[in-house]
């Protein structure tokens, strides 16, 4: 595998990880892994295809059937998953640098957020392994009915490029905790940390074949995984368009379980009686510009009550210069590069659309730092946005905030719900009745009140409507990767 490295950059191994070994793609194909930081070539990566999927599934099936992982005592599997988490932390600087070079996010967030969150997820589900009990049904004395969870089998996992480590951990941690074998397909836009994580999993003691990683493109590796007749479950995070295809492929093959966490156009509603306007402003601005706006739950639709809108905008615009894009490798940078030129051009097209449809551009709207070779877009704010505008309806997945004003509570709830998505929402008010009433009325998987995006591994994450099916995080996630079995035993009492 050819690589390009400078003295300050590591050399990356782009080969796939199947049955505990690094291997090239069976057809010998490669693709370039380009850094969005400066457009440089990081390495060439195995371009896996159907033959590689078959090999990984076969390895995963053998590992599942011979019980090398699911047959371990729960306490031992717990220790291994926790050791896996520890290794992520021990190699945190390496993983953070890799994530930044591969995906473009500021290195300080890659280290403090992505590495630590992924490790915490693995550790938490590891701890859960020997603490989740099965059940006995309350039947008559003539029967003993056992309700047990069993691992579902071979799990295919397809994750996006915006949070490669975190999204992988959210899927593989509960799947492994339940005793399954896993094939992980990272996005072709950011495959490097997933491949390194597989090596660390092996070092932690996860047996060969239990966790496999296949880099490659969706049609060539993702689709064969979704339609494979020997894959029992497919878990996907990504766009709603592709998520729909995943469900179709699952149904057309072996009716495998399909779980999808998809897009969002999250509304963030600030009422005039907001208890802390400065906090609301900071949350609105940081929420949309964090990770360069490349978050499915970003609060991209900001509804501000008309009586406080001018004051809100004045405060928000003062914060924008702090989010000026800069070199993600600089520890002081808070906004880095978009993942590639395709995504950058998509964001710029949406900005052009907003202008053409009559929204008022208050800040940003341009590509910057083009001379670096990287892919940077200014933090962008539109005012005067109407609900029928494209930028108010479609997921942009970039640093673009749309501001809409309102005067009526019922109407703002209607506008907030007038979306195909239902992932997250925010409500800012001092009125307890209003907070509860609006939160209940919003059709979203998570509603934040007087904050936005505070989070914990103990709470489920997922959406209503076309934001997906199923939940990541919390004990609810384990249900996705298990089958529930009833064992009914008749008892003929001898007394």
Overall pLDDT: 97
Between the first and last Cα atoms, what is the distance in angstroms? 73 Å
Unreliably modeled segments: 1-7
Instruction: Report the sheet with the most strands, covering strand number, pairing sense and barrel closure.
Output: 7 strands, mixed
Radius of gyration: 24 Å
Tell me the fraction of residues in β-strands, as a range.
Answer: 15-25%
The number of helical elements comes to 15
Query: Which structural class matches the secondary elements?
Result: alpha/beta
Question: What characteristic shape results from the CA principal axes?
Answer: globular
How are strands sequenced across the largest beta sheet? 14-17-18-13-12-20-21
Query: Got a strand count?
Result: 24
Estimate percent helicity: 25-40%
Summarize the structure.
The protein has 495 residues and is α/β, with parallel strands linked by helices.
Give the SSE map.
Blueprint: E1 16-18, E2 21-23, E3 30-34, E4 41-46, H1 50-65, H2 74-90, H3 92-103, H4 107-128, E5 135-136, E6 143-151, E7 154-158, H5 164-177, E8 181-185, H6 192-204, E9 211-213, H7 218-227, E10 233-237, H8 240-252, E11 257-261, E12 267-270, H9 277-289, E13 301-305, H10 309-319, H11 341-356, E14 360-363, E15 367-368, E16 376-377, E17 380-383, H12 390-393, E18 400-406, H13 409-417, E19 421-422, E20 424-428, H14 432-441, E21 446-449, E22 464-465, E23 468-469, H15 476-480, E24 482-490
Parallel strand pairs: 7-8, 7-10, 8-9, 10-11, 12-13, 12-20, 13-18, 17-18, 20-21
Antiparallel strand pairs: 1-2, 3-4, 5-6, 6-24, 11-23, 14-17, 15-16, 19-22
Helix pairs in contact: 1-7, 2-4, 2-6, 3-4, 4-5, 9-10
